[in-house]
Specification:
This protein has about 60 residues and is mainly alpha-helical. The chain has one domain. Helix content is about 90%, strand content about 0%. The protein has 3 helices and no strands. It is rod-shaped, with a radius of gyration of 20 Å.
């Protein structure tokens, strides 16, 4: 979770309305971030596996 001191700085940076929306959806945004990270990790793993298979075939 985000620390209290960081949250207290948000209204001055983003504005009160944007901060309220961000805090309201912070858990959803965190899960979306995890989905993106795991998606990229999965794609990278697939690419590496394909490259390994191609190297085995060519050697």
């Amino acid at each position: 979770m985000v620390g209290g001191s960081a949250l207290s700085l948000l209204p001055g940076i983003l504005g009160t309305g944007a901060t309220a929306v961000l805090i309201q959806y912070i858990q959803v945004l965190a899960y979306l971030g995890l989905v993106v990270i795991f998606g990229f990790t999965g794609l990278t793993a697939l690419k590496l596996k394909r490259e390994q298979q191609l190297q085995k075939i060519s050697s």
